[in-house]
Fold:
Amino acid sequence: MTNSSSSNTYKNIQGAIRRAGEDLGFSESTITTITNPYNVINESVMVEGIDTPINMYRVQFNNALGPYKGGIRFHPDVDLDEVKTLAITMMLKCSLVGIPMGGAKGGATLNPEDYTETEIEAVARAWVRTMHEYIGVDKDIPAPDVNTNGQIMSYMLDEFEHIVGRSEPGMITGKPIALGGSLGREQATSQGGVYALLKMIEYFPEKVGKKRVVIQGFGNVGSFAATLLAEEGFTIVGISDSRGAVYSGSGLEVHMVAEKKKTSNQSLHEMFDDHDDVLKISNEELLLQDCDILIPAALENQITEANAKDIQAHIILELANNPTSQTADDILKERGVLVIPDFLANAGGVTVSYFEWVQNRAQYYWTAKEVDEKLFQFMVDATDRVYTLSQKESLTLREAGFRLAVERVGRALELRGQK
Ligand code: NAD
Structure:
């Protein structure tokens, strides 16, 4: 995502919050509070073994509903605008699904492929040393995002506990099970998205067509979405990674591809031989292929003015954060494409992160079945509320989601006397 597209997305989200806040009758000062971050931490940090300083960020957007919550991204495009955009989205997400947490996001500007594992560990530890005063179990709870994972969360937990001198597993989520992680966290974002999709399909059965799905991105979120949907009887006709896409009208063996991706460094293009049934295409081409459901599960700003009018899907399930530009959203609305917005579709991840935090605080751990049942309840409840309001007020699902999310944060601010 370029600086300017992050900055546009941020302004568009602020604008949508403002419209929702005005419709709900909130005061100007409440709306100003909801649309601006409480704390911005941005440091250039020297890391052991690395010659040049690395920019590190934490944006704490709003904690009216509870401690700040949001992942940490390691990516060369990470900048302040991007982190602010992701933090405001976290605030909306936590509020919409009804968990007692606020919004935050963090990052470090680097391409992990340029560094050794030891150097990445050093970056993770340096990030915690830089941010330790601002984070903690009752303050701000980070988690993984693009290019960070359970191992990186483990280094961060270890560094934090060394600094504070006590055990505090709930200071970070997305940990491996052995360090207090929750069962079900790994696939939670995708599983939550599948629950939201299945519920929405009950309301719009005509949109599901032949249940053919295209997924952009085959990392944590995209690969679990593919296998979970295949298990639900959907046919996954197209998938992609950063190096290209594959498409097969008769469907791809996604379980096999997911296994292979875990154990080899091969790209999807390298994995498939050239044959008639599987087309090797570009990521741009993938989005325009024949399908019923399109799932962006990679990076921001992939569905734009340039391609929205040619997308063939009837439903878009936004598992990535902010994958659709505002102009594209308007085009899709006009064309009658049902867009299940990111802050509903991918909220399963933060929901199970919240469950992890609850379990860490109680030091009492749930079974996979308990986690899944609770996730199902949260996702179905939020999906129902969004659908019901959208019907009642003739809003898109995104507009209804904004209204519900802003209402909860705004009321919390009013109750605190911050009007
Ligand atoms: P990941 O790093 O595991 O996977 C990202 C995938 O996208 C990889 O397959 C990568 O090859 C692919 N990719 C990168 N650039 C691409 C491009 N230009 N075109 C197509 N594919 C590209 O990340 P993830 O955790 O799966 O996250 C994916 C998206 O979901 C991000 O937007 C993230 O913010 C969002 N998200 C993740 C979670 C979570 O729990 N992991 C929760 C909520 C939202």
